[in-house]
From TrEMBL:
Keywords: Membrane, Transmembrane, Transmembrane helix
Species whose genome carries this gene: Enterococcus termitis
Protein name: Oxaloacetate decarboxylase, gamma chain family protein
Top-level division of the source organism's lineage: Bacteria
Keyword Transmembrane helix applies: yes
Amino acid sequence: MEMDIEALKIAAELMIFGMGGVFLVLFLLFLISKLLLKIFPAK
C-alpha cells in the first residue's frame, strides 16, 4: 500500500484550516459574549 505524500500534505492543510476555523468561531463567540456582558451587565 503506497502513501501519496501530496495527498497527505493537502489533507493536513485542510485539517489545519478546519481546526483554525473552528477555534476562530469559538473565539469570536467568546469576544461577542464578553462585549454583550459589558454593554448589558447582569443585575
